[in-house]
Design a protein that fits this description.
about 325 residues, alpha/beta, six-stranded parallel sheet, four-stranded parallel sheet, about 40% helix, about 15% strand
Length: about 325
């Protein structure tokens, strides 16, 4: 579970509530193998024609390709071969992530991103900063698709976790994947007084626990428990420099917790002066964010609606008429 998965599952739920039929073709439906360097992510091994047969049986009015992995590649090839319009989304800064993991230039991976998304009728993008980056790499058919918050769950009155009891204040919280591309080490190496709390899991968890024994690692939390982690913290630290949005930031804000981050795409598109602080020195951003009005944070966080985001998604789809899709 991560921000992309939450976005996709919530969007599907919203669409079904509105009366739309949704077919999801995902790796859990096929044999799969672990992604190199990131075993928690599974790469599907679909037999030839498997994706095409599912599409033909469902006979959709629109096809959206969510990721650039093996299933996305299969669907893209099918659509391109039969001149079927489709949309894609740029959820993840794969060029930056892969560059960090392989130590190869990010531009090498941008070539693949451009090739993959270029035939799409529209590429759905969460923020203007990422839109500018994609335009710089030659992708211009872009459509805004923002994100939302479950406002029934993420509220300022969510009860804090028992682990917060007795912790020195201020409590500085990180929530998300515990992986190298999230730049969590920069946050944990900071000198701002108080307590640092990490919620989430991932491939870097054991290494960070061993290197920073003074930090509190609470593991994965969800629902109201996660909301309590946000609401009970004094500031939410977002050290990532490579996220396309940062769903956890608006969840924190909806719980009344101000955000401290670097002035990079994602935070730059979300965090305004009344609800957080951006600075190249993350400790300075944390110190400034602590002075924000928590009521203003909650009000701003509540402005991010899943209903509005799903409306954007729907308006971006490329509809086509197909009584029966062709064979693979």
């Amino acid at each position: 579970m991560n921000g992309v998965v939450r976005t996709l599952t919530t969007t599907c739920d919203q669409l079904r509530e509105q009366g739309h039929e949704v077919l999801v073709v995902s790796p859990d439906q096929f044999a799969s193998l672990p992604c190199p360097t990131y075993p928690e992510i599974r790469l599907a091994l679909a037999r030839p024609g498997a994706v095409a047969s599912r599409l033909r049986d469902f006979s959709p009015e629109a096809i959206h390709i969510a990721t650039e992995g093996p299933l996305g590649m299969t669907a893209r090839r099918y659509c391109a071969r039969h001149d079927i319009e489709f949309t894609t989304a740029y959820h993840t800064q794969f060029p930056d992530y892969l560059a960090k993991r392989t130590h190869l230039p990010a531009e090498w991976f941008w070539r693949y991103i451009h090739w993959f998304h270029r035939p799409a009728q529209r590429v759905l993008v969460a923020t203007e900063s990422i839109s500018q980056e994609l335009r710089a790499h030659g992708l211009t058919r872009l459509h805004r698709w923002s994100r939302g918050v479950d406002l029934a769950c993420f509220t300022p009155d969510a009860p804090p976790p028992p682990e917060y009891s007795g912790l020195p204040r201020p409590i500085q919280l990180y929530v998300g994947r515990v992986a190298v591309e999230k730049n969590i080490e920069a946050f944990l190496e900071g000198d701002y007084p108080g307590s640092k709390v990490i919620v989430g899991d991932g491939p870097s968890l054991a290494a960070l626990e061993a290197k920073f024994p003074e930090a509190r690692f609470l593991g994965r939390r969800s629902g109201r428990e996660l909301a309590g982690c946000y609401a009970g913290a004094d500031v939410f630290a977002f050290p990532s420099r490579t996220d396309t949005f940062g769903l956890v930031m608006i969840e924190a804000l909806a719980c009344g917790t101000p955000v401290a981050a670097y002035p990079v795409p994602g935070p730059r598109d979300i965090v305004t002066e009344p609800v957080g602080a951006l600075h190249e020195d993350l400790d300075r951003a944390i110190g400034a964010a602590l002075f924000c009005d928590r009521n203003a944070c909650a009000e701003y966080g509540a402005s991010f609606s899943w209903a509005a985001a799903t409306g954007q998604f729907l308006s971006g789809l490329a509809a086509f008429e197909a009584e029966e899709l062709p064979a693979a």
